[in-house]
Amino acid sequence: MTNSAPDDPKTLVSTDWLSAHLKDPDLRIFDASWYLPDANRDGRAEFDEAHIPGARFFDIDDVSDQRSELPHTAPPVEKFMSRMRAMGVGDGHQVVVYDGSGLFSAARVWWLFRLMGQENIAVLDGGLPKWLADGHKTTKTPATIRDRHMTVKQRPDLIKDVTQVARAAKLRDHNIVDARAPARFRGDTEEPREGLRSGHIPGSRNVFYQDLFNADGTMKPANALRTVFTDAGVDMQKPIITTCGSGVTAAILSLALERIGKTDHSLYDGSWSEWGMYADLPIATGAA
């Protein structure tokens, strides 16, 4: 039996928890499936074919700042509010977000809600694959949408820009933790996005996001999560900045940190899509 993490409606809930609460009137479910181009998968198309009953589709590329050249940058508050209202999500709702990979892009939406001051949001542990493996049903039926206002108060402490990260890298007053695969972190392989240099932010540590999961794709319990971070050389006494390729898997690290009670963390929204693009920003290669 997998050593699974306890349910917490502000971070992570099990498929059993979601199944038991599926008919709660104030529950709202998002399918936030998003894939890298080489996966050859279409999250929206898959959602239209089969999704958890009551789910709405959350497009992380649409609910973003379209003025930015960087992928799926956090949107302005007004855009976030209007998109959520259009999807019938507002004050007083408990939100559960999942994706088709297991636990990948859903954490990005969890972080985005937190950035907007919303705490009643959890990621479905193991995502749609675990939901199906546990024998739960899906549907093609669209959710009924009822408009509700959402009060948003952005939390600037949860996000970092390139200037703040460059300062942190220089002063070493934060731990910068990179969620990318070890070969990408070391600079041994080309980046999937064209035009980016290979390597990592100087002084950063590598915690590959998949190392945070059990064999069934669920997140490891708190004591095991803490061990993954400390084994990677992360100083848990310092505040942490999470980063990755484009701000998606960095949010998995943020979720894991929240699970172990490490609350002084923020996410570098531009991540390597930004840092790797600018020749005047320093890079390091090899192991941390």
Mean pLDDT across every amino acid position: 96
Distance between the termini: 34 Å
Q: How is the main sheet built?
A: 5 strands, parallel
What's the oligomerization state? single chain
For the structure shown, list the relevant keywords.
10 helices, 10 strands, single chain, five-stranded parallel beta sheet, alpha/beta, 288 residues
Describe this structure as you would to a colleague.
- The chain is of the alpha/beta class and 288 residues long.
- It has ten helices and ten strands.
- A five-stranded parallel sheet has the order 1-5-4-2-3. A five-stranded parallel sheet has the order 6-10-9-7-8.
- Strand 2 (27-31), helix 2 and strand 3 (55-57) form a beta-alpha-beta unit.
- The longest helix is centred in the first third of the chain and has 10 residues, at 77-86.
- It is globular and about 50 Å long.
- The chain starts with 11 loop residues before the first strand and ends in a 13-residue tail after the last helix.
Give a quick precis of the structure.
With 288 residues, this protein is of the alpha/beta class. The protein has ten helices and ten strands.
SSE diagram, text form:
Blueprint: E1 12-13, H1 15-21, E2 27-31, H2 43-49, E3 55-57, H3 77-86, E4 94-98, H4 106-115, E5 121-124, H5 127-133, E6 159-160, H6 162-171, E7 175-178, H7 182-186, E8 205-206, H8 222-231, E9 240-243, H9 250-259, E10 265-268, H10 271-275
Parallel strand pairs: 1-5, 2-3, 2-4, 4-5, 6-10, 7-8, 7-9, 9-10
